[in-house]
Each structure stands twice: as structure tokens, then as C-alpha cells.
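TL;DR need C-alpha cells for one chain.
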Amino acid sequence: METHVRVVARFRPPVTDEEFNDQPVFLLRPGDNSNAIDSGVAENATVESQDGRWTFEFDTAFSEEASQHVVYDRIGHPAVQDVLAGQTPENRIYHILKC
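>> reply
TL;DR here they are.
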């Protein structure tokens, strides 16, 4: 079954007040299907705090190393293409007609 909602996160670099002994604030782990984080992108990623107090799962997670270009290619471009094709989340197709 195809899903229409994807949960994506982009993490910014920590600010000075957030750093603790040069340790990362969070750990970004790629999912089972991927061996490494490629270009700052992890698919089916788990993000957990350094102290282990919280854990989140995302379809895609972008680390602070991910460029704007990479984020757009993975997320923005497919969404724009769907909009320009006229497809709605309900799989209905609408066309813009000249009246």
C-alpha cells in the first residue's frame, strides 16, 4: 500500500549552548536497509537523544551535512512534480482549464 504522508526531519547544527563536551546532541541512525548515511541523508532513520531520553523515527532524516540541493531533490522536486501533474492526495486529477 502506498502512503501519502511521509515524515521527514532536517536537523540543524547545534548552537554553542547545546554542545556538551563536544558530544552530539542527538544520534542519527539509518534504517536496516541502509548501511550508511549518504550525503547527510538517512532513510527509515531513528533519531535519539544523546542521553537516551527520547527516540523518534522518520521516513527520511537529513543531518546538518545535507545540502539544500539534496533536500530539494529528495523532498521538494517530487512534491512539485505531483502538484504540476494535477494529482491530489486523494489521487484525483484536476486540470486547469482556460475559460
